[in-house]
Prior knowledge:
By secondary structure, this protein is mainly alpha-helical. It has helices spanning 5-8, 21-28, 34-48, 58-64, 70-80, 89-105, 142-165, 170-197, 203-206, 209-223, 229-235, 238-241, 244-261, 271-278, 281-291, 302-308, 315-319, 329-341, 345-354, and strands at 15-19, 52-53, 297-299, 322-324.
Amino acid sequence: MQVTKQMLGNQTRKKLLYLDQNLFSAAAKAKRHAWVDEVLKHITELLDLQLLAIPYSSTHIAEADLFKERDALVSFIQKFSRGHYFEPYYKVEGTQTSKAFQAFLAGQGEGYVKEERDVISPSVHDWDGQYAVTVFTPESGYQRKLSFKQRSVEALVATLDGWRRSSKSFEEDMELEFTDGARIWVDEYAKKTARLYAGDFSALIDSPISAEIVETFVYIAKEMKIDPKAIGEFFTSQHYRSIPSQQLSARLYATFKQRLRCNADKLPTSEAEREEKYSGLTFDVQHAATYAPYCDAYFTDRAMANLMEDKRVGVEAMYGCKVFSSSKVSQFKDWCADLKSSMSPQHAEDLTWAYERYRKNLPG
């Protein structure tokens, strides 16, 4: 029989660390930089001590789909994460938006009530068993996904000069991000509705999840006999702007635009160089905006870490999430050491009962 923390009455909770694709990809390579090995060593120790969890997300898998060695990378991510995973980003966004809409209708406070269950199951804090069960799905549609990403990157690159030449303030850029985001939600719902009225029932299958969420809002409004205009009012309200994924995404993009204008982020001259430099920006923002607000720490590449630490973004100040990169390995080691030193004597003793490898010093 396996002894669990619940049997022992242990109430400790793990810290959540998010590793972005950059680190997972570097760690999966046979030949790694010394700093990567050092980071992995500290993470593995904390995982073994049941003090830390590093769940993977749907965005990791979506990015991995674009790698030639995709299956090996996905297997590594799932194994190293020990089977723990976050809810897909679109479900997180749907959960957050639905909660905020209900709070708006109920006249509750404008600040979003953040709960860990928004993004992950409470089972993440259970101690790891002997085996972790994951569902592995082979890659499919590589060329289609690669083509979609290429179009997305080209669209981003095409806007860079316009962003740099703009004279908008940070606050104006923030407002534009919120407005554009809300417009996309409503437009997708309108497109789905128009397709259904035209007899195109495939809209039920391939429409974006945002269209389904707005459709739910319409249903709720009808059931509560509320004017559907309330949906539009919600998307212009502080309730919508306080949603973590919307707030952080807006701050990241608005700050990025401001940095382009003051040359803090030097814009390459050639289109090819721009595509190479910013090809991962959309995924990077999706990673951070969705999951960083719920994590204790976040490990990413230097450029993204620099953006997340900008005072106008303020990930740590706003959400209490520390940001690390390869330039801050020593600080990350200190963070790991502090976490290890916080382990209570009871936790240490319980480990000896739950895991055979810790029982060496037990009598008999």
